[in-house]
Amino acid sequence: MINVRFEECPLVFCEVVFLQFTKAVESHALQTVHDIPRLFNFVQKMKANPDGNYKKLVHYERGNTMPGVSKEQVELARSVDLLTYLQANEPWELRRSGPNEYRTVTHGSLVISRGLWFWNRGGFGGKSALDYLVKVRGMGFINAVETVLSCRASPMLSALPEEKAKPPPGTHDRAVAGGNDQTVSEASEQSVIRWAGRETSNQPQKTLILPPPIKFSSLMPSYLQKRGISADIISKCISADVLYESRYNGSPVCVFVGHDEHGKARFACMRGINADLKQDCAGSDKRYSFRYPPENVDTVNLAVFEAPVDLLSHVRLFSEFDGYRLSLGGTSDTALMAFLERNSQIKSISLCLDADEAGQETAAKIKNVLAADKRFAHIKVSIDPPEYGKDYNIMLLQAKALEKQQRHHAGHRKEAGFLL
């Protein structure tokens, strides 16, 4: 990762075509640039002549921001620190790790303390919720500003004092069974993870902002079929209103939707078709992550995946599987815990997470947490990574390639037989 830093320009928004950016970010952390010398020269020219007219090459206004948000709105969004934002908007993401310290459920190495945050895995930190949404979650700058401002309008956000969020009653009083050298803080961490799926009376329901669907979807089915997903699976998802095609910043995206028990959309994530975009929509509630509808709604089986495409790949590979399929939208167990609380009939769980180190560590952790929870201890849990490849989509593509190769060889053998 390469950072180009300069203090003079408050904000620079460069077009992807000109500077070959993968995303537009703030000027003090221009990232993923393929043409560094060209960018450096361009920045030097801007610093020497900030009033120059670069037309479509760059949108630059000293002291102002990108079209869509004003300078005042950005300053207001920056005034909200990460802890306050999460307490008001995503309390299930917080877990206390010390007297004045929190970590997040999704990113275990991200530490929040005394008004600041630092992501150890990424090697960077900040103060505001805006920086977190842009740099850690990969959210577009304008979208991040609007997300923070929409949450700031809630009375709960301004009412919460810094570092005063508390987990459910009793989580700091008892240890969770199964730990050898477990501290009270670590025990409470697991309790907060289990608590994450519960609706609470004082927890405001987030407003999900769905990108509008396009009228004639063509790129999304083609993209998914290239990933090995069959047309009937895609059609079933579209009919169930859990999949559609949209545009995000002008680029086509697949939108995967999760609904609550009343059929209301509560979660959505976007996956780029022509670009490497992976992002949750503003207002998404991870407790209602994307899932594939089973034939039998009373099934007692559940398969769990990190991403929607892996989930759909499993449908293609194992059509005989009778059960729910749930995407975690990453490696957080928030969606799983919430799903189990809403579906008490589940008796068997297959953790089909990625075969890499992070995926298998998460699978082992989830299995231990379920075994230590009295509500879920009776559930049979198995860890089932793909037989080959990093994830189930790679496994599907390799299986299809092998099948094609076998058909090709069989055709040659048949042709040789006719020649004899």
What does this structure look like?
This protein has helices at 16-19, 36-48, 71-78, 82-89, 129-135, 141-152, 155-159, 184-195, 219-226, 231-239, 308-317, 334-342, 357-372, 392-419, and strands at 13-14, 58-59, 94-98, 101-104, 110-113, 116-119, 124-126, 243-248, 251-259, 265-272, 278-280, 291-292, 301-305, 324-327, 348-351, 380-383. It has a 5-stranded antiparallel sheet. Strands 12-14-13-15-16 form a 5-stranded mixed sheet, sandwiched between helices. β8 and β9 form a beta hairpin. Helices cover 35% and strands 16% of the residues. α3 packs across α6 (141-152). The model is unreliable at 1-37, 53-65 and 152-203 (pLDDT under 50). The protein is globular and about 70 Å long. The chain has 14 helices and 16 strands. It folds into 3 domains: 13-64, no CATH class; 73-176 and 184-193, DNA Primase, Chain A (Alpha-Beta Complex), CATH 3.90.580; 219-394, 3-Layer(aba) Sandwich (Dna Topoisomerase Vi A Subunit, Chain: A, domain 2), CATH 3.40.1360.10. The chain is an alpha+beta fold and 420 residues long.
